[in-house]
């Protein structure tokens, strides 16, 4: 006897220990929205849907992130394509977007750089909110840049350009009103890198040296030469790295240095002005 939607979700939730994941995977198979579930809980699943759903559940049980299984992740107001070539955008990174927008008036028509753009999440969110701005997004991964370009086309966002190269390397001779980055900041020996979803994400987008700050140091030092007078650098970091981030900014000569907490009141974004 074929299961209905309600019983299939109940069984999947017991397997995964997570109702949200069970729903996302089923809706992906059915190509339906979440509101559909409330109207169709008693619908019977056909054999093909059952088989496909079972395969996706097995991948999730093996630890593969839902975002990679479905190829999609929501960020800001955008649904983005993600692949194993890109970091999965996380809700806490939206704080970086909020802080960036606070420094860009609604009619802002200047320039912004997003370093290590990955799926393009930060650059595209800022571009959507500030359509007159000119934004350039860099990444050392050609595969990641291809994903970011597809996301820009999918959302018809035309004020973002893309440049292949490591952090600031593709921006020789250019200056910006604002530079943002979500660099890797996990310590290389952190055991969490071998656990859970992190096992599937690109290691180069997660870990950065013994203290997790190697790439942040490079960005802090290098960004000064690419900021216009009074331009801002903002970057995400780990919840224990606020003091260290401020120290790096102050030592490099930035002013108005700050650290902002995320919704869980953990240090998450630091920045300073040239």
The rough form would be described as elongated
CATH fold naming of the largest domain: Rossmann fold
What is the radius of gyration computed over CA atoms, rounded to a whole number of angstroms? 20 Å
Instruction: Give the ordered list of helices and strands.
Output: HHHHHEEHEHEHEEHEHEE
Strand order of the largest sheet: 5-4-3-6-7-9-8
Q: Any idea how many domains?
A: 2
Characterize the main sheet: 7 strands, mixed
The CATH class of the largest domain turns out to be Alpha Beta
Q: Which stretches are poorly predicted, pLDDT < 50 over at least 5 residues? A: none
Mean pLDDT over the full residue set: 92
Number of strands: 9
Percent of residues in helices:
25-40%
Please count the helical segments.
10
* CATH second-level architecture of the largest domain: 3-Layer(aba) Sandwich
Helix-strand category: alpha/beta
Q: How far is the N terminus from the C terminus?
A: 67 Å
The proportion of residues in beta strands is 15-25%
CATH superfamily of the largest domain, called what? Answer: Vaccinia Virus protein VP39
Q: Which properties best describe this structure?
A:
two-stranded antiparallel sheet; 2 domains; seven-stranded mixed beta sheet; alpha/beta; Rossmann fold; 37% helix; elongated
